Every structure is written in structure tokens, then in C-alpha cells.
Amino acid sequence: MENQNLIIRKTKALEGDDKGKFLRSYLFEGDEVFTEKLDENLEIIESKGTLPDGLVKEFFENGLTYFECPFKNGKRNGTSRIFYETGKINVEKEYINGMLNGRAYVYYPTGRLREEFTYTKDVENGRRLKYYPSGKIMEAADYKNGFLNGHFKSYDEDGSLKSEAEYEKDNIIGDQITYHKNGTIAMISPHKKGKAHGMTKKYSETGELQEEWLFEEGQLKSKKDYTLTESH
């Protein structure tokens, strides 16, 4: 591996009129060469100086690495990592010329994978997977141009299907289906442009229809409970 300049980053919370904001200082060979002022959402609102090419690192008080990422021409370029205070990786992402590109990973403190997803030029595209601490899949979702777009499935930790739906630009289209533990349908809820639309039906574990709700563009119009004993 070729030698890289080491740039130390330090972050501190600001006070007074800037309370809630943060200042990042970048030090190279002991001198402050670059600063960034961040807002409450950690978005850069002001910067001064010139950041040399090299590996930027920030440390916990215990001396272990909190953050590391190569920078080139003032932009993130390479593998960015954020660590837990134990030294295990928390988040790992790939950057090209300042933009997220490729797979990104989020880990539990145990080191097991928590989430994985893909970026293309700073926009999420492809399959996003979420995992239980045990390593079993919790959710699988398809993204396109930054939106949940395509099939979504959620699972119980035993691997059984919990729910599924189709999305278009973050909105459910068609039927949203949830399942009982034994695999039978618990509820079917038709949707239109992200809102419940049509007859939602709830079933028992043995398949008997229990309740119906009629929705029109998210508004409940009528409902019927088949579990109630007819009194008239």
C-alpha cells in the first residue's frame, strides 16, 4: 500500500449563537489546514482552507479510530469507515470523487451485518437488506433512483414471511399482505398511490374472514366484523 498523508480530524460542538452547530478541524503535520462548520444535521455550511490529499482520521478519547476515509482533491475518495468505541466497524461506504458509489454496510456492535445497500452517484439503487442480530434476514427491499421501488418483503426471525407489498416511488401500489406465523394470510389491504383503497380483509389463522374495511383513498368508509354474534 502506498504511503498516504495522514490528516487528523477533530470535531467539537459550538456554543453561543452557534449552539447546536459543530466545527471540524483538519490538522496536517500539526498545523490546522482546513475547517468545516456544520449545521444541526451535520451538513457543511462553511469551509476554510485547503485539505491535502491523504487519509483523514478522527479518534475516540480512548485513542481508537472513530472515522477514517481517503480524500483526494478535497473530496472523499475510497472506503469510508466509522467505528464503534470497541474498535469494531459501525458503517462502511465507498466514495468516488465525493459521491457514494457501490455497496454500503452497517454493522451491529457485535460485528454482525445489520444493513447493506447500494449507491450509484450518491443515489440509492438496487436491493437493500436488513438483518436481525442473529444474521437472519429482516427485510428485503428494491430501490430505484433513491425511491423504494419494486418488491418489499419482511420476515420473522425464524425465516417465515411476515409481510409483502409492491412500491412505486415510496408508495404502496396493489395489495399489501401480512401473514400469520403459520403462513396463512392475516390481512390483505389493496392500495392506490400509497393509500388504502378498496376492501381490506382480515383473516384468522385458519382462513376464516374476520373483518372487512372499505377504504377510498385512505379514508375509511365502512367496516364489518364477522366475529360478532348477530343479535337481530
Write up this protein.
The chain is mostly beta strands and 232 residues long. It has a domain of 100 residues: Single Sheet (Histone H3 K4-specific methyltransferase SET7/9 N-terminal domain), CATH 2.20.110.10. The chain is 0% helix and 64% strand. It is built from no helices and 23 strands. The chain has a 23-stranded mixed β-sheet that branches. The termini are far apart. The mean pLDDT is 94.
Count of individual beta strands: 23
Note the gap between the termini: 83 Å
By CATH, the topology of the domain at 125-224 is Histone H3 K4-specific methyltransferase SET7/9 N-terminal domain
User: What share of the residues lie within helices?
Assistant: under 10%
For the record, the CATH architecture of the domain at 125-224 stands as: Single Sheet
* SSE order, one letter for each helix or strand: EEEEEEEEEEEEEEEEEEEEEEE
Question: Rg from C-alpha positions?
Answer: 25 Å
Structural class: mainly beta
**Spans of at least 5 consecutive residues with low confidence:** none
Mean pLDDT: 94
State the CATH superfamily name of the domain at 125-224: Histone H3 K4-specific methyltransferase SET7/9 N-terminal domain
- General form: elongated
State the helix count. Answer: 0
Please give the CATH class of the domain at 125-224: Mainly Beta
